[in-house]
Design goal:
The structure is a single chain. By secondary structure, the chain is an alpha+beta fold. The chain has two domains: 3-118, CBS-domain (Roll); 128-220, Alpha-Beta Plaits. The protein contains seven helices and nine strands. The strands form three sheets. A four-stranded antiparallel beta sheet has the order 7-8-6-9, with helices on one face. The longest helix has 20 residues, at 201-220. 22% of the residues are buried.
Length: 221
């Protein structure tokens, strides 16, 4: 998924003749704190509510403060991950999109980005989540996928989080089955440390009951 597929179809750009008050009104309507200022399809800059209040330009046109505007943007063919990176780094509520000819195309908002990202990581799909904790040197996506697929399931999405100043990483898997019992048991058999499991609570309780029964049988032999 690329930037041009994420552009909002409802947020208009400001013009150089528009006032700070108009910008604030639009920000309130669209629930964002940044708006693009555009002239002749050219991005002049990005105005924020903070700049408007700090410089007290509520009653003044955008043209008076072009030098105070930032010019962050993404290209239409950039990947969604790059869009996320820029918005996160600069703490933006929205970012302008330019085409390959440097012309303004529209805005991507954090809300729209979150909605699309939910689709990417299969948030809306039924299934369960497993969080594995392992040393970086032991990481093998091939083996992890084989364990999941060997239990007649598929990985819908996954992401890796490496702990700071540590060789330990957390691998979070979203799997397309609700009952993760067999997958969990296989991971345990392969000596994986399962940090967390998120699935139906009744299934988790049945898993714990089964383990307890197995422990009692072992102790009574």
């Amino acid at each position: 998924m690329i930037a041009q597929n994420l552009i909002s179809d409802v947020i208009p750009p400001l013009r150089l003749t528009d006032s700070g008050q108009k910008a604030l009104n639009w920000m309130e309507v669209f629930r964002i704190s940044h708006l693009a200022v555009v002239e002749d399809q050219r991005l002049v800059g990005l105005i924020s509510d903070k700049i408007i209040y700090d410089l007290n330009i509520i009653d003044k046109p955008m043209s008076d403060y072009v030098g105070q505007m930032l010019t962050p943007h993404v290209r239409s063919n950039q990947h969604v991950y790059e869009v996320f990176a820029l918005i996160s780094k600069l703490k933006l509520s929205a970012v302008p999109v330019l085409n390959l000819y440097h012309e303004y195309m529209g805005m991507i908002t954090v809300f729209d980005l979150a909605q699309k990202f939910a689709d990417l990581v299969a948030v809306k799909e039924p299934g369960g989540v497993i969080v594995l904790e392992l040393n970086s040197i032991d990481y093998s996506l091939t083996q992890i996928a084989q364990i999941v697929e060997g239990n007649d399931a598929k990985i819908l999405s996954f992401y890796i989080n490496e702990e700071k100043d540590s060789k330990v990483m957390n691998v979070t898997l979203k799997v397309n089955v609700v009952d993760l019992s067999s997958i969990i048991q296989t991971f345990v058999r392969y000596d994986y440390n399962i940090k967390a499991v998120y699935m139906d609570e009744s299934i988790i309780q049945n898993l714990y009951d089964d383990r307890y029964d197995q422990l009692m049988k072992f102790m009574n032999t």
